[in-house]
What we know:
The chain is mainly α.
Amino acid sequence: MRRILILITILVLSICGYVYYLDLNDSDKLNRKAFDTVMSEKMEQLYVQARNWKKPLNMQIEDNRLEGDYKVMSEFILKYWMDNIEARNSYLRQLDRADWDHFLSATRFEQDRKAAYQQTTQMLSIVKTATAEYKTKHEQIGTKALEDLATLDVNKNMRESMQEKLEATRQDNDEIALLHIEMQILEKAEQMFAMLKKYKWVNKNDMFLFEKDEQVRKFNLLYAEVLEFQQQINELKKQNARFFEEDE
C-alpha cells in the first residue's frame, strides 16, 4: 500500500505543479500551501488505515482548510484512491474468509475428502466470484473517475493534466499486475484440485503422495508454477519496498 500512496503524491505534484509557474497572488499561494499540507496528512491517514486490510477504510476526505479548485481536486483524488484501495482490501477479506491461504494443505484436503470435497469446492467458488467481482470493480472505478473528471469544475489545465495521469495510472499499476498473477494461481489451483479428485493419494507430513510417477510429475509441475507466480508477487512487493525507501 505504501507504493500506492507514493503514486498519489507523484500524481498530485504532476497535476498541480504547473501552478508554480504562474503569477499567483497571496491568496492562491496560501491555498496551494494548504493543499500540500492537507494531502500530506490525508495520505498518511490513508496509509495507516490501508495497512490493516481486514478493516474497511474510514476517512473523511473533505477539509475546510481548502477552497476552490484545490478543494475539488483534493476530494476527487482521495476518493479515487480510497475506492481503489477499499476494492482491493474487500477482495482480500473475501479470500481470507474463504481460508484461501490454506488451499494446498494436504491435511485440510484429507479431511475434506471425507466430505466429498465440499469445503474445497465452496472455497474455489468463493475465490472465483471474488476475483471476478474485484476485476470488474477495479475497471468500474477507473471508468467512473474519468467520467466524473470530464465534468469536474476545476481549471482546464489542472483537469487535463489529471486526465493524462489518471489514464496512464490505469494502464500501469501494481494492482493490475497482482490481479493478473492471482488469476493465474487460481487457474493452477483448479487444475491441482482436479488431479486430487481424479487420482489416489495419501497425506504424509502435510504433503501429497501419488501412486504413479507421472501423476507426481504433473502435480509437481503445477505446484512449481504456483511457486513461480508467488515469487513474482514477492518481487513486486520488494520493488515497492525499494521504491518507498528511495523516496524516504
